[in-house]
# Entry
Amino acid sequence: MNDPALAIIPCPQCGVKNRIGNYDSDKTPVCARCRANLMDKKEHEAFQKFQENLNQFKDLPDVGFRPKASE
# Structure
């Protein structure tokens, strides 16, 4: 039920909460109700860079530096 790739973005115009499952970095997400942009150009560019960085490091192996949950 809790999908880490799922984002909920409230519309700045009408206030409805929009679920964004698969973010396409070429398109700015819009509200399902009123079709307003859910983020401005600066926010969209920042999110694009964040996604690019995640994709760059997603396949690196886990070398065991993280502490265990019990520690």
User: Anything to note?
Assistant: The longest helix spans residues 41-57. The CA atoms of residues 1 and 21 lie 12 Å apart. The mean pLDDT is 81.
